[in-house]
Amino acid sequence: MLAIIGGTGLSQLANLDVPRQQVVRTPYGEPSGPLTFGSIRGAPVVFLPRHGYGHTIPPHQVNYRANLWALKEQGASAVVSVASVGGIRGDLGPGKIVIPHQIIDYTWGRMNTFFEDEAPVQHIDFTEPYGADLRARLLAAAKACGEEIVDGAVYAAMQGPRLESAAEINRLERDGADIVGMTGMPEAALAREIDLDYAAIAVVVNHAAGRGASARGISLKEIEDVLEAAMHRVRNIIEVLAAP
Ligand code: HPA
After folding, report:
1. Fewer CB in 10 Å around end: N or C, the chain?
2. Whose CA is nearest to atom 10 of ligand 1?
3. Sheet strands (E) in 32-88
């Protein structure tokens, strides 16, 4: 079953047929909310809004472990993460939809592993942090929707909840990052730890701090407007992904 973790701007999947909600408890505490089960043209889907249904949980307080554990336990085999991001690379302006292929993790203080007391110590391979097949399916679904989306970007996961300084964005660019968000990690690594296929669809909602229209500041109102306009495109892509 396909799982969707909705990000900012996507706290409901309006196109789910016969939705039903279920509270799931995990050894890691409470997920961001009850899981919503439903189907898209007959294909079963489970949805969870990362920040809660009322968007109340900030990026650094999301219980990433409980979210992924709950989805896995309820039968998910693949997870598509929806995320809003700032664009660092010049061509990645507001409204662009990007399927990242790499991550750099700058977060700290988050519960970032399921392997707490394992003996022997467990490591995962994370050379390719996103599932190649799932990425390809997302790209194909976008194409089928007539959406021009960007294949490949390096996602910088920042701690938040504040946005970055211009100098921090310059540093991220020197590090090779193309887009910047706050929720990509530890989510991607936790998914890998429990064998969940994982890919992300990122919506650029602003130029990163100090860049383009954000040269002197980031307009939060503008972010909302872009999100609103972009999320129905994301919903369409997910619909085709779930039921091609
Ligand atoms: N920085 C970090 N996270 C974000 C941004 C940004 O500019 N835009 C949306 N999420």
Report:
1. C
2. 85
3. 35-40, 43-49, 78-87
Q: Could you tell me the two tokens for 227?
A: 């999100």
Q: Residue 39's CB: how many other CB atoms inside 10 A?
A: 16
Sorting pLDDT into bands at 50, 70 and 90, what band is 10? confident
- Tell the residue nearest (CA) to atom 6 of ligand 1: 86
Task: Looking at the CA of residue 207, tell me the nearest atom of ligand 1.
Answer: 7
DSSP state of 128: S
78 lines ligand 1 (CB under 6 A): no
Amino acid at 19: P
Which of 8, 182, 224 has most ligand 1 atoms within 8 Å of CB, for mutation?
182
